[in-house]
Design a protein that fits this description.
Residues 10-222 form the PNPLA domain. By secondary structure, this protein is α/β, with parallel strands linked by helices. The protein has a single domain, classed as 3-Layer(aba) Sandwich (Cytosolic phospholipase A2 catalytic domain). It has 15 helices and ten strands. Strands 1, 2, 3, 4, 5, 6, 7, 8, 9 and 10 form a ten-stranded mixed sheet that branches. A hairpin with a 2-residue loop joins strand 7 and strand 8 (205-209). It is globular.
């Protein structure tokens, strides 16, 4: 049997400001590629802030290295006030609306969240170039790009994808694929972190962050035709033998702060499902190799999928804690009460710290982590060793 032609997918998970790490990994890939190299990822899938990176990369797929440079400059220049209201009046007004509407039932029935993310729309409108996606697909430099959002009424993880006409929509348990022309609305919806950012209406229902109930984050790339995937995670959890070694811990015995609780909830939303999906895929790969030669793995839905994972080698929470003073004063005061500005609550901060020092450190960490896997990346991308 002739093996299927390799179709390489890129998975960019969610995580607010943590997505700056992904840009560093992509910058390292650009360094490894020849100067005139074409886009190595025929399928690009993103969720939450990863969706912003995915669409930006896809819109520049005709000139891959230039797209990476533009995306890097974007994250190096981003500031909190470009993503959310961080001035005193904006923070206080949003807090008042949240308390009045969501807790006391006062005022108009509008989607209200703890943070006003309206500046993000203007930022994305300046960054988003829809025509680039159409051209890349037409020129066969891209098979498909997709972003995932969560429908609050349907309870489904909806993957909105733009790609070649030969790609069929799909329907699985709480997971569907919908062909469309991607827009800023899809990016706003996919990056609407629950409770922090307001949901966005697309069609008949409101959508929020795609990481919510996304039980199989890798599956959209496989539905879109990928049979090998590069996953850039943002967890900072060690992988390999070190991940199962016992770690000595000291406990304070204090009650958890609201930020600590919120941080664990965010991590379970953005990180745990991706790591579980990777583990499941690796088990299925192992199972496929045990099948008899006369039983084709694809007939059982167990065709092997090569997976390469790059994730932070350092705890992102600790990096965020070092940069907490970069947060604008109004936001810092607003987050201090729940404990997000303390080291124990820095997980929440790591999602919201859209400031240069923090983002640049994540970019450099991503670059170094990718270069540390230079040989694996080169093999995966089919590059000759220099």
């Amino acid at each position: 049997m002739i093996p299927a032609e390799p179709v390489t997918g890129l998975i960019l998970s969610g995580g607010g400001a943590r997505a700056a790490y992904q840009v560093g990994v992509l910058a390292a890939i650009a360094e490894l590629l020849p100067d005139e190299a074409q886009n190595p990822f025929q399928v690009i899938v993103g969720t939450s802030a990863g969706a912003i990176n995915a669409v930006s990369l896809a819109s520049g797929a005709m000139h891959f290295k230039t797209a990476i440079e533009r995306l890097t400059a974007f994250w190096q220049a981003v500031r909190s006030h470009q993503v959310m209201r961080s001035d005193w009046w904006g923070v206080i007004a949003q807090a008042r609306r949240f308390l009045g509407h969501s807790l006391l039932g006062l005022g108009a029935r509008l989607p209200v969240a703890l943070i006003d993310s309206s500046p993000l729309r203007e930022l994305l409108e300046a960054q988003f170039q829809a025509s680039g996606i159409e051209q890349a697909i037409a020129e066969h430099q891209l098979r498909a790009v997709a972003v995932t959002a969560f429908g609050y009424e349907s309870g489904q993880a909806v993957t909105f994808y733009q790609g070649r006409g030969t790609i069929d929509a799909w329907l699985r348990h709480r997971r569907i694929g919908v062909p469309t022309v991607l827009s800023v609305e899809h990016l706003m919806a996919s990056s609407a972190i629950p409770l922090l950012f307001a949901p966005v209406k697309i069609g008949p229902q409101y959508f929020g962050d795609g990481a919510v109930r996304q039980s199989a984050p890798i599956s959209p790339a496989l539905h879109l035709g990928a049979n090998r995937v590069l996953v850039i995670g943002v967890s900072g959890n060690p992988r390999g033998p070190a991940a199962v070694e016992p770690v000595a811990r000291s406990y304070t015995g204090l009650q958890p702060t609201l930020a600590q609780i919120g941080g664990h909830l965010l991590n379970s939303t953005f990180i745990d499902s991706l790591e579980s999906d990777i583990e499941l895929l690796q088990r299925l790969n192992g199972f496929s190799h045990l099948l008899p030669d006369d039983v084709p793995a694809h007939s059982l839905g167990a065709a092997p999928v090569e997976v390469l994972v790059i994730s932070p080698s350092q705890p992102i929470d600790e990096i965020a804690a070092r940069h907490r003073q970069e947060l604008p004063r109004a936001l810092r005061l607003f987050l201090r009460g729940p404990g997000a500005t303390k080291t124990s609550g820095a997980s929440v901060l790591s999602y919201l710290l859209f400031e240069s020092g923090y983002c640049n450190e994540l970019i450099e960490l991503g670059r170094q982590d990718a270069l540390a896997q230079r040989d694996e990346l080169s093999r995966f991308l089919g590059l000759a060793r220099g």
